[in-house]
Amino acid sequence: MQALDRLFISIGRAFNSFLSQFLPPTAVTVIGMFLSAIIISTFAALVFMFLTWLERKFVGRMQDRIGPNRVGPFGLLQPIADAIKMFTKELITPEGAHKVAYNLAPILAVAPVMMFFAVIPFGRDMVAADLDVGVLYLVALSSATEVAILMAGWASRNKFALLGAMRAVAQMLSYEVPLVLILLALVLMAGSMQLTELVAAQGVPFALLQPVAFLIFIVAAAAELNRTPFDIPEAESELVAGYHTEYGGMKFGLFMMAEFIAAFGMACLVTTVFLGGWRPWIIPLPSWLWFLIKAFAVLFVFIWFRGTFPRLRIDQLQAFCWKFLVPVTLLNVIVTGVVVTFFPIVRDGQIVVQGAGGWAVTTVVYFATSVVFGLIIAWLYRRPTQQALRQIEVGRPAARGLSQEVQAA
Amino acid sequence: MKPYAVIGAFFVVGLILPLVTVIGATLLSPRKPNPIKGDIYECGLKTVGETWVQFKIQYYIYALIFVIFDIEVVFLYPWAVAYNRLELFALVEMLIFAGILLAGLLYAWRKGALSWV
Fold first, then answer.
1. In B, which residues are within 8 Å of A347 by CB distance?
2. Which of A67, A222, A272, A359 is least enclosed, having the fewest CB within 10 Å?
3. Domain endpoint, select from A258, A292, A314
4. What ipTM does the predicted assembly reach?
5. What number is the average pLDDT over the span A259-267?
6. How far apart are CA A102 and CA A153, in angstroms?
């Protein structure tokens, strides 16, 4: 068990000591860094291939279809067939496109999502770069993709692509604010932006301490990833394919890759900050296996969304973000600040909650506060009653509830 | 210093990996250009008019609100990290700051800047 838990660390150590027989220590460090980057990036690329299969299979099942089942057992080799197809398709640069920006955009879309995994703790002591500003770094990276998307849309010289890119950027900018505000509440509880510290502070998963924030985070994350029901940047029924309309072959494949790897990265972030990261739950499996199980559970929820919800309109989408998510998450920060003052989890950099009893009290207090907060919000945004609706018809704007404001936007 | 070097390594690898893929695809794929293939897609017709059109003003307003909010929220992060070392007064200060933020949001809401026009 112990050996299995530390499997990858032992392999790394053994490789390091093997290399240091021939090379100076500086060279060993540099090679180690690049090797960790290459291994994690390759792993992310493999997860991408697996995810394309997983999503098609699951969505197929949800729509009462079979999904891919021709290539290999259960269609498992489908991603490889797709990769071969993409490699052998002609790469076309449309006439009138800005050549440099057009060809650079897919590469720039992939780079930031690959960098996402540098700070994620995949298991006990399994983190490539234990950055002390980890949360801020991830937030910064998630907005870096927008540059590539706008570049792709603008350079294609296609109206659909430009419209898709603008929608994508507006949506990703807007939904970043609630994400950042929720992460702020969690940083407040853990007293650190370092992701390993955040995991260490989760004697009880933060999803239990902050259920309302957890739900909002999942929804906002789906929007940040441009996934259904928030996929208006690529709405195929109105915009053909959005910002990658003019892309084909491997260049299109890279945009696909950026999207799916970003989804995996976001699932890793949710796992790390809400689900206790690599901490095992009840069953003692290796820490990295637990991390992957949780991350794929979150990914399954994203796929489930896609099989369930219809697409939103852009005005509904922006109203939902700015008139509901932003005020609620901002209030959540204030409420969390008050609770943390009286029931601190971390004091002076040390975890102060003691034993199972202490955690039980903390969990009950935080959970109850979050639920009460959620109920108050639900009451504030309730549907207007019949009487209120009649008063609106008479022309009394004061009777308009908040939820109506959101719907009417 | 070391974590930042690792992030540099990730950046380099993150750029090289897609670059290698695109170069590989260029080598493997056929190359038979013709004028119709190079056309910009628009439902089977030739594109009409200017492509780089004026964009909707609402995008600009959302971007402005975003800049205000995101930057102010980033100011709250150091406070959140240092909070467990501070006295009760830190909470009061944050309440004032968050109150100003909320007031700004309500102002934008009242002005109709949050509504799609």
1. 84
2. A359
3. A314
4. 0.86
5. 91
6. 8
A191 shares its domain with A259: yes
pLDDT tens digits, residue range A133-165?
A: 889 899 888 888 888 888 888 888 888 888 888
What's the token pair of residue B76?
């709250």
Q: At residue A389, does pLDDT exceed 70?
A: no
Predicted pLDDT at A5: 77
Residues A108, A80 share a domain = no
Which residues of chain B make contact with A318, given a CB cutoff of 8 A?
62, 114, 116
Using CA coordinates, name the residue in chain B closest to A143: B70
Tell me whether A38 touches chain B (CB under 8 Å).
Answer: yes
Q: State whether A122 and A236 are in the same domain.
A: yes
Residues A68, A120 within the same domain: no
Tell me which residue in B18, B30, B88 faces A110 most closely, judged by beta carbons. Answer: B18
The Cα–Cα gap between A343 and A369 comes to 12
Q: Which amino acid is at A320?
A: F
pLDDT band at A271 (very low <50, low <70, confident <90, very high): very high
Rounded CA separation A321/A220 (Å) = 8
Distance CA A38, CA B15 (A): 11
Q: Which domains occur in chain B, in start order?
A: 2-110 (1.20.58.1610)
Structural domain span for residue A280: 89-314
Whether A82 and A114 map to the same domain: the answer is: no
Cis peptide before A286 (omega within 30 of 0): no
Chain B interface disruption, residue of A88, A110, A246, most B CBs within 10 A: A110
Task: Find which of B12, B29, B84 to mutate to test the A interface (most A CBs within 10 Å of its CB).
Answer: B84
Instruction: Give me the helix-helix angle, A326-342 and A211-224, nearest 10°.
Output: 140
